[in-house]
Amino acid sequence: MLEFIQDAIYTVTGKKGVTYDTDFIKDLALNSFDIMNIIVIFEDHFDISIQPREVWHLHLVRDVIEYLEERGITQP
């Protein structure tokens, strides 16, 4: 799952070096447009809908993985 998230972030921002503890805002300085573009990749790939109010709880890469796993998604 980490590799998929790394690829999504790279596709949108060109940034590498993402780990489980990477913070989208503090470490990567992503803006809301970048974050929403990454969310769209997740939604399209996993055929899910992520509500905007849920996005604000996803600060770290680890948060995204846990969020997806809670919805039964364990493989990219």
From TrEMBL:
Checking Pfam families in the record gives:
PP-binding
| Domain Carrier, chain residue ranges per copy | 1-72
Source organism's superkingdom?
Bacteria
- Cross-referenced SUPFAM superfamilies: ACP-like (SSF47336)
Protein name per Swiss-Prot or TrEMBL:
Acyl carrier protein
- Cite the source lineage: Bacteria, Bacillati, Bacillota, Clostridia, Lachnospirales
